[in-house]
Amino acid sequence: MTPAEQQILPVVEESAATRAITGSSEKSDAPAVVLRGLHKSFGSQNVLDGIDLTVKSGETVAMLGRSGTGKSVLLKLIIGLQKPDSGSILVHDQEIARLDLDALNAIRKKMGFLFQHAALYDSLSVEQNVDFPLKRHTKMTDSERGDRVKQLLASVGMERDLKKMPSDISGGMQKRVGLARALALEPGILLLDEPTAGLDPITSGEIDELILKLQEEHQMASIVVTHDLQSAKTIADRITLLHEGNVLVEGSFEDLEKSDNEFVSEFMKRDS
Known about the structure:
Number of strands: 10
Radius of gyration: 18 Å
CATH superfamily: P-loop containing nucleotide triphosphate hydrolases
Strand order of the largest sheet: 6-7-8-3-9-10
Number of helices: 10
Shape: globular
Low-confidence stretches: 10-26
CATH topology: Rossmann fold
Largest sheet: 6 strands, mixed
Structural class: alpha/beta
Order of helices and strands: HEEEHEEHEHHHEHEHEEHH
Number of domains: 1
């Protein structure tokens, strides 16, 4: 796990960590994430050029685009790992860019992050990886944490593998464990960076079904960065296509397929 990945592991309020994972029963129209006029450059490279995007509670938005179009950068901005050059990032009505570290950590309590390569601690077992944020940031007893970890691993189909090390399980299983850890602190927002990257089609399909199941149970606002067009079609309520630093088009999968924009048509043909 890289230092950057360690930095954005979620921090939890002690009271929140003792609640059962139940999720809300209904979707809400309240926006969970609102981006307005978001700009980000690295030197002379203009990565994001005025992004506008709203994600409602209970909604899953998939972000597509060519490599280097700023999709993963956008997730890092939302989690507060990087700061925008200009523009607004509202997470549950709080402006991320203006928060100090303590306030930023407080808002991170409401967000879960699944890293592209799962980012499990190699020296910790599956059970210990999921237990890590609970042990570090709560006052739950060993028994309470143990029950919670087993519940989380059962929710992703990994309850029989809790004693295994990350090196002893497949890439798809590591993604499942990463999802369990991301859900440990009951986030209202889930950010997923290439959840099916490097997986075979069958395993990718299983991860997609798991994401759908968890979304139905927890009704989180989810933003999924992916190159996997089939995955986006399966899991997303809405799809956005980034091009040249901005949202070129958004809508359903069918909307993108019917687009008469030359770049959109070419993208869909090459990635389908």
